[in-house]
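User: My instructor asked us to take a sequence, write out its structure as tokens, and then describe one feature of it. I'm not sure where to start. Here is the sequence I was given:
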Amino acid sequence: MPTAPPAYKIVNSRLVLTAGFGGLLLLMAFAGFDGIQALQQIQTANDSIREEFLLRTRVLERIRADVYVSGTYVRDYLLERESGKAQGHQYSLRETRSDMDAALQQYRALLNAEESRPFQVLTQELGAYWGVLEPALRWTAAQRQRDGYTFLRDEVFPRRTSMLGIADQIGAINESQLKAGRLKVEETFRQSRRRLTITIGLTIALGLLLAAFSTRHILRLENETAERYREISGARAELKLLSARLVAAQENERRSISRELHDEVGQALTGVLVEMANLSTLIREKDTDRVAAKADEIKKLVENSISVVRNMALLLRPSMLDDLGLVPALQWQAREVSKRSGIWVKVSAEQVSEELPEEHKTCIYRIVQEALHNIVQHAAARHVSVTVRQEPGRLLLAIQDDGKGFQPQQERGMGLVGIEERVSYLGGKFEVDSAPGRGATLNVMLPLAEAA
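Assistant: Let's start with the prediction itself. The structure tokens for your sequence are:
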């Protein structure tokens, strides 16, 4: 009979496939999310570094421009002869200093560790620069005309050049910071690429494993399907053969019943009719002695006919199976077989309930009947043991003989096939243990519904 694959195998395969494809989707989602997050992180870091660099550069350029412009205003102030215009240059110079102070304060908030020392030097130089300029801003026109050029040459221009050099150093440090930021962004990108490569590798590996598992599972399903098809085809062929055998057995049984009725009952009844005619003649002749003898002969013929009909009825469906139960019916059958064949048949029953279902009683009775018939016909046995035992939830039957044995896998006749079909119909199990020279044992297990 075709067998379905175990449920746990189907559940395990579904769990593995679900977990595998779920893990694959999670890995793909993680790779996408991590890639997007890494790109956003790189973009944010790059924008931050760029904006910070541009801001620092603008502030530093502002300081540098103020230093350069301040020198120009000092020059114009010192070389201007008209007092009004000199005051205008002085005002512009003070505005430039205010702007420079504001720029220095802004840049101080943007300082990093590497720029703190050069910025401190720049601040000190600017303080000294403005400290040198402060007395010159109170000079008279004559003082400016007399000492202005010398002051510009010896004090202003050298200090301005020095401060511009310091500003250039700070600018170089700022550019190095930009380069360091770019290197950091590149390192972040490499790390993200490494993580993405690992994730893609894991995804590919898991995908290959799933593909291999799915392929193996599909091939196994194909093999199981092919096996089921072969089993079904074999079962159909066996069913056709069984149907043909059943029809043949039915025809043989009908032929046997017909022969029994014709040869035994028909001839007996014919004999009764003949003897009844003879009895009628004797009655008319008033031969009292011969009438009594003839009546006895007719009685014996009728009794024999009744016995034949009773035996036929018992073979078809023993009334004692319904009236007395399974065990007495089996014991009667054992006695009848022993009478006909001379084989000693023993029936043992252990805790067999009289409330067994009808189909179970009929099944056990017919199996014992068929087994004893086969033993008589083929086994050449001297002793047969029939054991019926009821256990919780099942009914067990064992039939053992000491005959010549056979090979069950190769010699499966109509009787064994019929027994197997009866057992399978009730959801039971059937097996035959035999080998040439060591007898045979037939075991049957029928499930029973648990009592409420």
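For the description part of your assignment, you could build on this observation: The longest strand covers residues 383-391. Try explaining in your own words what that tells you about the chain.
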